[in-house]
Design goal:
22% of the residues lie in helices and 32% in strands.
């Protein structure tokens, strides 16, 4: 089967002038500067340089795939979509599109401002090669989805940005393009409409078998909607893989964190009572590493220095995922030091996170040293280290043989019991029967 989008050695170069201009200048100032340059024998020359918005991009996307495109501002995401939408020509390479393409890239694209909402719906359908009767069949559904019934016969130049986007998305999603391209423009709409759009994109992909390309800074939306993702950085394709793999790689690079943190002696966080020295994440062999399989245990080590005796001190940890959701918190409640004051000296607290407990993805670690009762936090450091938890198909995890996106902040491997039962006992099953 041939891909519906095939990109080969794609590149886009822009020529940028280095001459700086004022934000505002009058004709008098332009004339004066010109005469001054002539009198002084100066010839104002503009210099230009090449800027590659995209370079050497290669990928294939097949029918029914929902692909997210992520990266920081200026990474080349919008340029790529404009090339695929035939708005911009590439400098090198090619982008082969097999099928009708509907795109929603920015407010104002695709609509004629002087035409009414009704007229623009029919114009867009005609551009996609649809017959009048085909557009009429979808017309009521489009209007209902966009929620613009009262303004249907008003020129769209009088629409608010939210109304414009609602109608533009409804047209792009309902007029049967085989490939749907949506940029961050959905951020213009309100939260309820964004949720509605995400649901529609998922529907056209799963139920109708259409291909969707989706650019968003909302990582949670990309993870929920997409099966694969492209990660662009400075115009270069860094990774094209399963959505969870790409998101983890992107966020880990973006945060710039590692699995070990050592503070300099003169910059130890804390107070006159206790200071943090070293935090790391290790495997069962005490090896510090960044990535752990979901089926292996993770050990977190916290080394701190008690500088004043007479205090009950406990190490604590906050666990967050890459979407800033607090997974859980914990602190040292072992009987060995519970309610016991610590003397001056160095201490190391280690906690084991059992295998098959955390979900796959990035886990951010915040660290604290506290007094439990009366409660007082002596030091609390955010985003100290990061763990990458991987759930591959070869591991014994709750994923089993399922290969799709697996939501949830934890993923415990719990025990199941299933047996064939007689129909007359269908109501009388009890837990003890499965022990």
């Amino acid at each position: 089967m041939k891909p519906v989008i095939s990109v080969k050695n794609l590149g886009k170069r822009y020529r940028i002038s280095s001459v700086k201009k004022k934000a505002y200048h009058s004709l008098r100032e332009d004339l004066f500067e010109g005469f001054k340059n002539l009198l002084n024998g100066n010839v104002r020359q503009s210099r230009s340089e090449d800027f590659w918005a995209l370079q050497n991009i290669d990928f294939d996307i097949y029918q029914g795939e929902v692909v997210g495109i992520i990266g920081r501002n200026g990474a080349g995401k919008s340029t790529l979509l404009k090339i695929l939408s035939r708005i911009v020509k590439p400098t090198t390479g090619e982008a082969i599109i097999r099928g009708r393409l509907g795109s929603l890239l920015e407010v104002g694209t695709g609509f004629h401002p002087e035409l009414t909402g009704r007229e623009n719906i029919f114009m867009n359908g005609s551009i996609l090669g649809m017959k009048q009767y085909e557009i009429k069949q979808k017309f009521d559904e489009i209007v209902s989805f966009a929620e613009v019934e009262k303004f249907l016969d008003t020129p769209v130049k009088f629409y608010s940005s939210g109304m414009y986007v609602r109608l533009a998305f409804a047209v792009a999603a309902h007029l049967n393009p085989e490939i749907l391209i949506v940029d961050e423009v959905l951020a213009v709409g309100d939260a309820a409409f964004q949720k509605k759009c995400l649901g529609k994109m998922g529907e056209v992909a799963t139920k109708e078998g259409r291909t969707v390309l989706f650019v968003s800074h909302n990582i949670e939306a990309v993870a929920r909607l997409c099966s694969k993702a492209l990660y662009l950085q400075n115009g270069i394709l860094q990774l094209f893989d399963k959505v969870d793999t790409v998101i983890n790689s992107y966020l880990q690079l973006k945060m710039g964190l590692s699995s070990e943190k050592i503070w300099q002696e003169n910059k130890l966080p804390g107070n006159e009572i206790v200071k943090l020295i070293h935090v790391s994440v290790q495997d069962e062999n005490a090896k510090v590493k960044d990535s752990f399989n979901i089926s292996e245990a993770i050990y977190i080590s916290i080394i701190y220095k008690v500088e004043r005796s007479g205090y009950v001190l406990s190490a604590g940890i906050n666990f967050f995922n890459e979407r800033d959701i607090n997974i859980f918190d914990l602190h040292d409640v072992s009987q060995e030091w519970r309610k016991k004051e610590k003397e001056i000296g160095y201490y190391c607290s280690i906690v084991k996170i059992p295998e098959n407990f955390l979900s796959d993805g990035l886990v951010l670690i915040w660290v604290a040293i506290l007094t439990p009762n009366p409660f007082y936090v002596h030091v609390h450091e955010k985003d100290v280290i990061v763990i990458n938890v991987v759930d591959d198909l070869g591991s014994n995890s709750a994923r089993g043989d399922y290969v799709g996106h697996f939501p949830g902040v934890v993923r415990p491997l719990l025990q199941w019991h299933t047996k064939l039962i007689a129909s007359e006992n269908i109501i009388n099953q009890k837990f003890v029967d499965y022990k």
